[in-house]
Sequence to fold (134 residues):
Amino acid sequence: MALLFRVFGISDVGGAVAAGILTVIIELLPPVVGGWVVWVGGVAYLINQGHILSGVLLAVLGFSLVSPLPDILLRDKISRLKWGGVNAIISLLGFIGGYIAFGFVGIIIGPVSLGLLKTLIEEWKEVKERTSPP
Fold:
């Protein structure tokens, strides 16, 4: 999304990165809201500025690359995989908290560390249940 916003001249680099981050955060919300909200805003902006062809092209690319087409095509395949999975809220808190604590690198460190902490707590609970007397 950030690349599309930059290529179509909707915003400068900072605004494009913000749009990309906003798309990721919105994609973590329930399925009714998705990344389509961001690219539809970009399409409306382009059409309002008189760039009809660019708006239509952004709509096609947004639909096929951002949302909802990838969600439709990939959701079933991803849900069939038996992933341990980290809750979306934990990932979101990891992104935000990691960025606040460690800067840009924290975007990767935050969700991973919170996922490991969640796994550690779950394993500790299992061991505690197995070793506790009946």
User: Anything to note?
Assistant: The mean pLDDT is 83. The two ends are 55 Å apart (CA to CA).
